[in-house]
Amino acid sequence: MENRARLTIEVIEGIRRACSPDFQIGWRLSIERYGLQLDELRELTAEILERKLIDYLDLALWDSAQMVREGTFRGKTMLSVFTSLPRKGVRVGAAGKIMSAHRAVQLLDEGCDFVLIARAGILTRDFPLQVMADPRYESPTLPVTAGYLRRGGLSERFINHLQGWPSFVLPGSL
Known about the structure:
The protein starts with a helix and ends in a 12-residue tail after the last helix. The chain is α/β, with parallel strands linked by helices. It has eight helices and four strands. The chain is 40% helix and 10% strand. The chain has a four-stranded parallel sheet with strand order 1-2-3-4.
């Protein structure tokens, strides 16, 4: 574990040494990808939080409500595996299918200090303002038409990219 974590820790420590003390360092942790073991990721994250190497932790989840299906944390939410760690002042946020004001509030209730949006921000550029104005606001349901995305100001290049995402853009839509 120590050798596998060395590169991550050395990079973060190097950034900290090279920057001013008030420079914000965040670490985006893609929990479900790259064949990483959940127990080891949690252990590495605990070490980084304990040593106060970062200012915020960005938990990148495909789905912020995902449950752990096997191993030590089976039956818990993936999010809770990390929000339950002692933080030492480090703020924790999560991303992953946050498509409504209700889900954003749930994440705050589940231990996040902030939420990160992607799909909802692509669909509705002023999603945070919509959420502030209406606590029942929900993003449009996916998939959407390419025309909907164009009207929202997205470029053709980005719309073409999104067509590669499963269930984001209706096939053959204009």
